[in-house]
Amino acid sequence: MLQKFNPKNEGIFIHVGGQLLPRNEAKVSVFDSSVQGGDAVWEGLRVYKGKIFHLDQHLNRLRESAHSLAFGAIPPEEVIKKAIFETLAANGMRDETHIRLTLTRGEKITSGMDPRLNQQGPCLIVLAEWKPAVYDNKAGIRLVTANIRRNSPQFLDSKIHHNNLLNNILAKIEANVAGADDALMLDKDGFVAETNATNLFMVKNGHLLTPFPTACLPGITRKTVLEIARELNIPAAEHNLSVTDFYNADEVFTTGTMGELTPVVEIDQRTIGRGNNWPVLDQLRVGFDTRVAKEGTPLPF
Q: Are 200 and 184 in contact, with CB atoms under 8 Å apart?
């Protein structure tokens, strides 16, 4: 599942601090807060056939994350949208595109932890790449349960979509060592939270279940899936779920902007469900594709 370099991205332009720059010139200062302490927030967005899916929801979460971290002078929404549109236009991107939108606390006057050293305001980065969904949505993926736990609100609230991703990276390393595609992460009490990169759902006896969003990011794709389930009259609820619940599920799948809806075929070398039989997931995928076709913010070019 290792992503590969796409030659189409060799000459892309990236928006950094108000400037459109070629890939090899797009840099931040060594004094930037993202370098100094991972002090930044981010969003992943996807472009489908001339429209950005759920743009306003992503920008709202970016703003709320920055506000939670007490960023000063958060750029207005229209400024961020303009930077996104300019980047996509410069690269001729209207489909099959993933946007990594980052807002750092900005450059410091000297190295240090104190946010009062950030006196130039936040730095906005718009990195758009030619990139399809990163998982194999037909064959599915394999997970392994990680030893590293997902943060709870008493440590670092997962509702803040921050750049300090070291616990997720450590979990991913465990998955790599085990030869799995990704890691399943538990909360401090041993309940399933999410994977190192996505939200998780399971199906049991026709009921759609997902962990409470306490130690996981309440993802926008996750929210969309719950809405589609209601429209399709699929019983859906949030629950405290153990790894054993997932082992014995009829279906398990992940959700996220980078991978969309992806079946999980194995967890800790236990086969999930009945092979390639995902009746509930298949219904949800049709509903998701329908939304993608109908919804989204049109590109102004």
A: yes
CATH number at 76 reads: 3.30.470.10
Confidence of residue 255 (pLDDT cuts 50, 70, 90): very high
pLDDT grade, residue 275 (50/70/90)? confident
Q: Is 51 helix (H, G, I), strand (E, B) or coil?
A: strand
Q: Can you give the pLDDT at residue 137?
A: 81
Examine the domain organization and report whether 88 and 180 are in the same domain: no
Domain boundary among 107, 130, 153: 130
Q: Are 45 and 101 in contact (CB under 8 A)?
A: yes
Residue 93 structure tokens = 């991107």
Are 65 and 156 in the same domain?
Answer: no
- pTM of the prediction? 0.96
- Cα dist from 261 to 127, 137, 141, whole Å: 23, 7, 11
* 102 and 145 co-located in one domain: no
Q: Mean pLDDT for the chain?
A: 96
The DSSP call for residue 262 is: E
For 216-248, b where at least 16 C-beta lie within 10 A, e where not — what string?
bbbbbbbebbbebbeeeebebeeeebebebbbe
DSSP reduced 3-state for 285:
helix
Beta pairing, strands 199-204 & 251-256: antiparallel
